[in-house]
């Protein structure tokens, strides 16, 4: 009998579910719910929420906070007045998988009573009572509904992660919470009432500095908001203090002992060390699934491939190992597979980013492999450089990771570093707001009516230089006036769910008459790696890229890929069903070394932002083949990131003076034009720029005269 591949296997198992299976699963889920540590304190928790308008709930990962508490509150009557329960997550995958799980637990179709919303995807309806969403999405909702009036309860989950959006959200919610409590006794102002949810009211509030939300909120009576902050870290003090001594409750977790193993000598090749450990566990240890922490999609995909390669070399009886990747940009239908129990006799290896640290709990894990690394955002305010780099985890992260092995019984954790190295790790990670570019944050706060960003009541103040730099960049982009107020362009930029620089590019393109092209370009720039270049087929993938490559740069190359794919798809659709055409498109992607998931994501983003710009009344015209006009538009949009070639072939970023190289993945890597604009800076052993286009320096002088002058 031929051995079954992982994919075939899972497809067979999940699609042929009988009625009996369905009831068995329902019963099992009920049992699991009852056994969760949090189930024992349901009544007490509901009482605590009733008695406290702000509450901090601390509980170990896996105790049932995220999936159960919203259901308890719903049952406890917190939606009775028509309000809904909103739960924010730092990560998209968590919002999606948890919403699916909770819909299943409640026995309702996803998107009805239980739903989720993330950027570019809204799976909720008028009936939705429990809504999972990313923290960034709730911030966006506040732009249109400053008092978040449809929510009776807002739960900020995973607050210990301290992502930039969580921190901003906490500050905003503090205001909204205050305002909604006060509005009970507030003055009624009918004119304001009528304008509450439109941009007009928003603009009026902008004059009101920090108390903007408060004043506007007093105009209408709102029911008070129940605010819950949930965290997996034991230290609730920082949240409690920030919310004026708010009450904190601890939920007992259930943790079995976990044996920790360290390596004897430092590992130089992390991937190889991880592979050896995975197979060592698989061949020598008893049953139980393995969770491996890796730094990102690329690393996960290559480890997955290597596992399959090595499995083929094993005798047939030892091949019962299934791999399941989980990372943020994984399509949602694949994300859920990770939660399915492994078939009898098989062992699962879950290859995850730090998403599996606390955001999602996967049942069945007994072994954890932790290389001790994580991809993190860092920001250099002096250089104005924001980049993703791989850094060592903190002690807190290492402990969270090893804890994943002891959820259901005693477990083992293999740290791929030496014990002495652990001692050198920092205790906890620096909040993201201290190591991030703040352009988007400053723009959003301004759009929310908070003009004095420097004195905003952040839970942790960001670096002052970083704020000032962001204000300066926003001014250069025309989003902020000389009086430090948000301009009309700034308002438009804040409305688009994109990086502010990309939003600006769309506005500029509508004036240049190439918005059709720029929409595509921005959608393609907003997704991870469009090109798929497996190590063993580097040559073939490079050749495939050549057929799309534009000598003028990566932006036009991305445009070519999208347009060619779209033409293929549209033609296919005239003779095939939509489903068949989608399938053919995936095949086309494979043949052309294009990452079909990324392309699909870009197509989705494109249709969403197309709707956005149409609603804003921007004119979607095409410049057809006028690539010169398009590149001039790129220069007018991305002038903050321009660089000039130096005599030695390196580039000097004009604004920061930073010396960079063109990334080898760029179509301009060899061409080395005199002057370029780029979108991304990455640091490895060198500083590289990616997504690069050739421009003429004189265009900068003409199109961004406030920054560039004619050079001698
Ligand atoms: O939020 P917290 O870490 O406290 O726990 P949770 O995410 O509510 O998870 C509670 C339980 O539900 C865990 O034991 C998970 O194994 C299970 N769960 C699941 O089986 N499938 C999901 N998609 C999510 C959670
Ligand atoms: Mg949770």
Automatic annotation (TrEMBL):
Keywords for the protein's UniProt record, in alphabetical order: ATP-binding, Helicase, Hydrolase, mRNA processing, mRNA splicing, Nucleotide-binding, Spliceosome
Pfam families named in the record: HA2_C, Helicase_C, OB_NTP_bind, WHD_HA2
UniProt record, GO biological process: mRNA processing; positive regulation of transcription by RNA polymerase I; RNA splicing
Gene3D superfamilies, alphabetized: 1.20.120.1080, P-loop containing nucleotide triphosphate hydrolases (3.40.50.300)
GO MF entries: ATP binding; double-stranded RNA binding; hydrolase activity; RNA helicase activity
Limits of the Helicase ATP-binding domain: 46-252
InterPro entries for this protein: DEAD-box_helicase_OB_fold (IPR011709), DNA/RNA_helicase_DEAH_CS (IPR002464), HA2_WH (IPR048333), Helicase-assoc_dom (IPR007502), Helicase_ATP-bd (IPR014001), Helicase_C-like (IPR001650), P-loop_NTPase (IPR027417)
Catalysed reaction equations from the record: ATP + H2O = ADP + phosphate + H(+)
Domain of life: Eukaryota
SUPFAM superfamilies according to UniProt: P-loop containing nucleoside triphosphate hydrolases
EC number: 3.6.4.13
Family note: Belongs to the DEAD box helicase family. DEAH subfamily.
Protein name: RNA helicase
